[in-house]
Amino acid sequence: METSYLVGAILVASIMTYFTRIMPFIFFRKKEPSAVIKYIEWNMPVMIMVILVFYALKDVSWELYPYGIPELIGIVVAGLLHIKYKNALLSIFVATLLYMVLVQKIMV
Amino acid sequence: MSFFSIFKMTIPVLMGYIPLGMAFGLLLSNMLIPWYYAFFMSVFIFAGAGQFLALGLFASHATILEIGVATFLLNLRHTFYGLSMISALKNFSWKKNYVIFGLTDETFALLKTNDIKEEERERAYVIITALNQSYWVIGSVIGALLGNILPFNYKGIEFSLTALFVVLSIDLYNKSKQHKPFLISIVIGFIGMTIFPSDKMLILSLGLAATVLILFKGALEDGN
């Protein structure tokens, strides 16, 4: 990969990331945010996150062995653990470990 | 508040960022990108999902414009975090710019869930943010340098990111007053995954979600 491409891409990604974080501090320094902005701020994050789950699954081959079963098991385990214990790191750690065992040892 | 007690607060993030950072570094070195780019990305971008996304976009030779738009849309959720930090950071010096820069999902969660006294807040926030970033940088550099040397089979470790999205979906669902956006995004995500072209899936699905949210504002705010 070319150096100029990587440097440019990293620069743009860092500026955009910082921009998303500083935006509310720039725009809502004094006045209260409008009702529409509040509505979007409240409802968009959960939609983004759910879509990201599907995004992470977009390259799974559902019609080929193991038919996405390790992914589905991993997601169900992460979800159930998180609903029960509300400990993000525990849910992520256990689900990832289980997924790694599944794809490395059981459903090879 | 002692440095040690602040450090103790960040241990959960330490445990998550080192392996996740290593997964990032490993992925980067497997794409034959030199290790120091892992360092620069973690120092200057400092966004977990954002950096993984960037690697995915590098791999599909996305243009710099596409990388910019995708990063912006992916990290737009941080704007929501910033909104609820405005009053907490109001009296900070210039150092608040670093706290804002480092406002990742996990840093935000730590800052929001720990009660820190007003007069100790600035120092504690800066240290928490810096510690978290150092874990992320160290993990990603270790992953990029040693990932392929360490005798450990990493296959499947990228699932930690999928699990992170699942966990954050549940957290945000529990926090939101309306449940319709959650259900709608499941439909949109499914459509995106099955119908939209793989390389444009994220942008198209997020655009569709924002459009539906705005067009049906009245109906969505009605009841639950």
Characterization of this structure:
The complex is a heterodimer of chains A (108) and B (224). With 108 residues, chain A is mainly α. In chain A, 77% of the residues lie in helices and 0% in strands. Chain A has four helices and no strands. The longest helix of chain A has 25 residues, at 3-27. In chain A, 37% of the residues are buried. The mean pLDDT of chain A is 88. Chain B has a domain at 3-153. Chain B has helices at 3-9, 11-30, 36-44, 48-59, 64-75, 77-83, 96-101, 105-113, 118-146, 159-175, 180-194, 201-215, 217-221. The termini of chain B are far apart.
Determine the strand fraction of chain A and express it as a percent band. Answer: under 5%
Low-confidence runs of chain A: none
Q: Report the oligomer.
A: heterodimer
Order of helices and strands of chain B: HHHHHHHHHHHHH
- How many helices of chain B in DSSP terms? 13
Structural class of chain A: mainly alpha
Task: Please give the structural blueprint.
The complex is a heterodimer of chains A (108) and B (224).
Chain A: H1 3-27, H2 35-56, H3 69-85, H4 88-106
Chain B: H1 3-9, H2 11-30, H3 36-44, H4 48-59, H5 64-75, H6 77-83, H7 96-101, H8 105-113, H9 118-146, H10 159-175, H11 180-194, H12 201-215, H13 217-221
Features:
heterodimer; A: 108 residues; mainly alpha; 2 domains; 4 helices; B: 224 residues; 13 helices; 73% helix; globular
Short description:
With 108 residues, chain A is mainly α. Chain A is built from four helices and no strands.
